[in-house]
Amino acid sequence: MGLKAMLADQSELTIVASAPTVPELLATGSELDLVILDLRLADGSSPKTNVEQLRAVGVEALVFTSAEDPYLVRLAAKAGVLGVLRKSEPTATVIAAITAAANGEQVVTTEWAAAIDGDPGLQDVGLSPRQRDVLALYASGEKAARVASLTGLAPHTVNDYLGRIRAKYAEAGRPARTKTDLYKRAVEDGWLPIPTRDQPK
C-alpha cells in the first residue's frame, strides 16, 4: 500500500500486479518490466531462489527492504538484483531508483555495495568457498565429524580447515577462539543468517 501511494502520481510507473510469493506473481500472467521484491515473503523462500525464478523468465528485480538482515541482502545481491533499496528512503529516491531499474539500469546504493563486498567496517579474511562451507556448517552447530560427512571431506581435513579459518580471523584482528566466536564471525560476514527469537544463539 505504501509503494502504491508513492507511485500514485507517476504516469510512467504502474503497478500491474502484486502477490505474496514469486510463483503466485508469475501465475498472474501479467507483463512485467520489473519486480520490486521484499526479502521476506509469505512462503519463507530464499531471495536467491526468487531472483533466479524471475531472471529465468527474463524479469529483473529491485529489492525494497528494511535491510535488517545482511545475510538475506547478500543472497539477493549476489543473485543479481539491479539494486537494494531501503524502505526508509525518501519518496523521491525510491521513485528515481524504480525508474532507473525499470529501464534496466543498475541502482547502486550503500546497501547493495556492502552486500556485494561485505561490511566495509569488517576486514575480509579471504576464506575460500570450501572454508566458508565448513565454517557455516560448524558454526551453526554441527560437530566436526558431521561436517566431514556433509562435505565429503576427511575429518582431519575439516579440523585443518577450522584451524586455518581461526588463523585467518586472528590475522584480521577478529579472533575466533571458540565455536561461539566462529558463529559470530560467520554472522558478521553474512555466511549465516542473523538469529531470530525462536533461533537463539
Automatic annotation (TrEMBL):
Presence of the UniProt keyword DNA-binding in the record: yes
Top-rank lineage group of the source organism: Bacteria
Keyword Transcription among UniProt keywords: no
Pfam family name, one: GerE
Modified positions (4-aspartylphosphate) in chain numbering: D38
Limits of the Response regulatory domain: 1-102
Gene3D superfamilies: 3.40.50.2300, Winged helix-like DNA-binding domain superfamily/Winged helix DNA-binding domain
Transmembrane segments: none
Keyword annotations: DNA-binding, Phosphoprotein
Protein name per the record: Response regulator transcription factor
